[in-house]
Amino acid sequence: MSPANPSPPARPKAAPIPTPETQPYWDGAAAGELRIQRCLDCGQAYFYPRPICPSCGSADVEWFTASGRATLYSYVINHRPAPGFEADAPYAIAVVQLAEGPRMMTSLVGVAATPEALELDMPLRVTFERRGELSLPVFTPAEAESEELQ
Predict the structure, then answer these.
(1) What's the pTM value of the predicted model, to 2 decimals?
(2) Measuring CA to CA, which residue among 108, 33, 35 is closest to residue 75?
(3) Is 47 in a helix, a strand, or coil?
(4) CA angle 105, 111, 117 (to 5 degrees)
(5) CA-to-CA distance for 22 and 1, rounded, in angstroms?
(6) Are 92 and 107 in contact (CB under 8 A)?
(7) Which domains occur in the chain, in start order?
(8) Per-residue pLDDT reduced to its tens digit, 36-54
């Protein structure tokens, strides 16, 4: 844009709006924990948050803290960023398989967004990204944790 027409201000990244059903999930993320639900009747862990077990229909469910371990199930490399994500492009949008069983959509950080770097079934661990008032779970290669410990 020309000096007479300055570029519009950068938009912030979109952030979810917690609901009463999802508030324990967001409270966990703020505490650095990945919380998901489990059915007390059939034992099935599940994600996304909801009051009824998707496996057996029971309303007898609980929240628990997941291990934070996952593997890369699928991904897409986004070269056309959504508003607020321009500085991150290209970036990977992923589906990860949690160690507890459920799959969740997330972002990958700490790894190049290239097919060579994103190996299916690669071990991942959760970390959290601050976005406004919320912390969002994102995933990074698990070997990054072992490198940090050295």
Answers:
(1) 0.87
(2) 108
(3) coil
(4) 95
(5) 42
(6) yes
(7) 23-143 (2.40.50.840)
(8) 999 999 999 999 999 999 9
